[in-house]
Structures are given as structure tokens and as C-alpha cells.
């Protein structure tokens, strides 16, 4: 049995990058008979980036509804909210005490903020950096190690976090005995980094996302906004250097992609290419858009599913945490 686990931070509206980089492949994989899967809403991670309570609460509902609308089978998979499993926070502390500060110094998320401070000429390189951001990878390691995940389907941006989770778990194992399985990142090369409207990685932080549940008209409008170059209809275009093509590849069949590549070389007009891409995405999404809207209108159903998932997650988290505490010497007195 292989254990698959992944999470999404609840800081915004789910977008196409989350869908193709994490949710779709994860649900697909969870259907295999020999897979045990854990999918969760990383709301404790959300606090690191977002101090807007309403936004976190709304995002949590939206991301939960997204997994459910897309057909996640919550009887087969364990689907929960990170904060509903307090054992994860407790494990985070155990791991924090075992993690070298030097390892965290190398974290991309932290380094990116330091670099930005320097670029902006700030005297304090740590300006705006909380301990949450600095130790972000430790909470993520706890998420993963708590359930002994073998595989973690993620986008490319999370690979370093997976390496850190392995380092942290290996260090614990080395000192206290073999408790943790070493997880590995599973990245689908076709969709490793889905670009956003401006061609950079689609990300809430860049404000360039295409939300997953836009109504049809708005979805079309967003797709028409994807940045292209100024080549005119009839001029050949490069299919290997095109954000549009990268997005299309994540939704279209191999055959459709081959046809579109040819159309690029034949000089398809950007407007025509965008229309085809819109139609392909819309066909895939319209079937589930209604499920999503129904769920958003019924928050009690979402809550019920999350509570069921948290109870299942804690069934294994509680005894495992007790085992880990025992290993480090936090034991009953008698
Ligand atoms: P987050 O919330 O930024 O993104 C959730 C997932 O979506 C993927 N993703 C993308 N994939 C392809 N192209 C894109 N443009 C794109 N944007 C986002 C991300 O790679 C990720 O897989 N730290 C994590 C959340 C987390 C987690 C975990 C993940 C917390 N604990 C444990 C796995 C296991 C994060 O911030 O993802």
C-alpha cells in the first residue's frame, strides 16, 4: 500500500495552477486500489502569509468545496483541515527542536523575502519575516511525516520543501530510531509550473491567477488576457515558448496538443488559439462547476466531510504521536 498526501494553503480562491499541479493528479491517483490518500487544507500555513480572517475562512470553504466538487471520494481518502488535527502542531514542535537553523536559512521562501528586502534597499534584511515564514518547512514536514506519506504530488515549487522534510525526518530517525518513512515529491513534468496571465508562474502572490470556478464568460475573458507576443496572424509562432500552450497542454489530449503545435507553426492568430483553449478548458470545467456551486450553498455538508476526515486522520495521528513522544522521552510517569 502506498500512502499519498498533499495539501493546499487556504489563502485564496483555487486557481488553475492548484487544479492541474495538485488537485487533479491527486484525485486521479487516489482512485488506484493500492493507494491510501490524505488530502488536506493547510490553514495553519495560511496564517503565515495572510492575516485576514475572512479571507482564510472563505478560502477554506472554497478549497474544500473544490476537492469535493471534483469528485474526491471521502470514504476512500482522508480529507481534513490541518488545524483540526492538533497532533500535527505538536509534532511540529518536536521537529522544530531537532531541526538545524542552518537548514531553514536555505529555505527558498525565506531567502526570497530577504532578497526582496535587499532589492528594495531595506536596512533590515529580515523585515516582514515572521518565525512562521522562517520555519514554514518544519510545519510542512510534520504534515507529511505524521502520516508516513510515501508520495507527495506537488508542483515544482514545493520540491525543496520535500527535500527538507526528508532531512528533518532522517535526523529524527537517526537519533531516536526508525519512525518516519522518507517521502518523495511527485511532479508531473507536463504541468510542473503552470504559467499565469503574465507568463510567470501562476500564483496568488503574483496576482496573475485564473480562478478555477469563474463563470463561463469571465473564464473566456481571462483566457483572452493571457500574455502573448506581437506576432500577427500568418506569422509562425513558437509552441515551445508560449504560456498559452503550457496551459493548453495541461488540459488537452496529446493529439490536440500536436494539432495546436502545428497550428502555431502555420501562424494561427492568437485570438483563434485562445478561443480553442477556452473551449477545451470550459468543456472540462463546466461539468463540475455546478457541483461546486451546490456545495458552496451548503456549508454544513462541507463541514460534515471535514469533521469525518479529521476524525479518521486522528485515529492514526494520536497513537503515532504518542509513539514519537515516547521515543524522545516524553512519557507517562508510571
Ligand atoms: P500552495 O497552496 O501554494 O499550492 C498548492 C499546490 O498547487 C501547486 N501549484 C502549482 N502547480 C503548478 N503550477 C502552478 N502555477 C501552481 N501553483 C500552485 C503547488 O505546487 C502545490 O502542490 N506548502 C504548500 C502547501 C502544503 C503542502 C503540505 C503540500 C502545506 N503542507 C504538505 C504538500 C504536502 C503550498 O504552499 O502550496
From TrEMBL:
Subcellular location: Cytoplasm
InterPro entries the record matches: aa-tRNA-synth_Ic, Rossmann-like_a/b/a_fold, Trp-tRNA-ligase, Trp-tRNA-ligase_bac-type, Trp-tRNA_synthetase
Swiss-Prot/TrEMBL GO biological process terms: tryptophanyl-tRNA aminoacylation
Catalytic reactions of this protein: tRNA(Trp) + L-tryptophan + ATP = L-tryptophyl-tRNA(Trp) + AMP + diphosphate + H(+)
Keyword Repeat recorded: no
Database matches in NCBIfam families: PRK12556.1, trpS
Function (record text): Catalyzes the attachment of tryptophan to tRNA(Trp).
Subunit structure: Homodimer.
Stated name of the protein: Tryptophan--tRNA ligase
Organism: Marinicella pacifica
Amino acid at each position: 500500500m502506498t500512502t499519498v498526501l498533499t495539501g493546499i494553503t487556504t489563502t485564496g480562491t483555487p486557481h488553475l495552477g492548484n487544479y492541474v499541479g495538485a488537485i487533479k493528479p491527486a484525485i486521479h491517483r487516489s482512485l488506484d486500489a493500492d493507494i491510501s490518500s490524505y488530502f488536506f487544507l493547510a490553514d495553519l500555513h495560511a496564517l503565515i502569509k495572510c492575516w485576514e480572517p475572512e479571507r482564510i475562512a472563505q478560502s477554506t470553504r472554497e478549497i474544500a468545496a473544490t476537492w469535493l466538487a471534483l469528485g474526491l471520494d471521502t470514504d476512500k481518502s482522508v480529507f481534513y483541515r490541518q488545524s483540526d488535527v492538533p497532533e500535527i502542531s505538536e509534532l511540529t514542535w518536536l521537529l522544530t527542536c531537532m531541526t538545524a537553523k542552518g537548514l531553514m536559512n536555505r529555505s527558498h521562501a525565506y531567502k526570497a523575502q530577504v532578497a526582496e528586502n535587499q532589492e528594495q534597499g531595506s536596512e533590515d534584511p529580515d523585515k516582514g519575516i515572521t518565525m512562521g515564514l522562517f520555519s514554514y518547512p518544519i510545519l510542512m514536514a510534520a504534515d507529511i511525516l505524521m502520516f508516513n506519506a510515501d508520495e507527495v504530488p506537488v508542483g515544482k515549487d514545493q520540491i525543496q520543501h520535500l527535500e527538507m522534510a526528508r532531512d528533518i525526518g532522517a535526523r529524527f530517525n537517526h537519533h531516536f530510531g526508525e519512525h518516519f518513512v522518507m517521502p518523495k515529491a511527485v511532479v508531473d513534468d507536463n504541468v510542473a509550473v503552470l504559467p499565469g496571465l503574465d507568463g510567470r508562474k501562476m500564483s496568488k502572490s503574483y496576482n496573475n491567477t485564473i480562478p478555477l470556478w469563474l463563470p463561463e464568460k469571465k473564464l473566456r475573458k481571462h483566457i483572452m488576457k493571457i500574455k502573448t507576443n506581437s506576432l500577427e496572424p500568418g506569422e509562425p509562432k513558437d509552441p515551445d515558448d508560449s504560456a498559452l500552450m503550457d496551459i493548453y497542454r495541461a488540459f488537452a489530449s496529446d493529439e490536440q496538443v500536436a494539432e495546436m503545435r502545428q497550428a502555431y507553426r502555420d501562424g494561427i492568430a492568437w485570438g483563434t488559439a485562445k478561443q480553442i483553449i477556452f473551449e477545451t478548458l470550459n468543456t472540462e470545467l463546466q461539468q463540475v462547476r455546478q457541483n461546486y456551486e451546490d456545495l458552496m450553498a451548503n456549508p454544513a455538508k462541507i463541514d460534515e466531510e471535514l469533521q469525518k476526515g479529521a476524525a479518521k486522520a486522528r485515529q492514526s495521528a494520536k497513537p503515532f504521536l504518542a509513539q514519537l513522544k515516547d521515543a524522545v522521552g516524553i512519557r507517562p510517569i508510571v
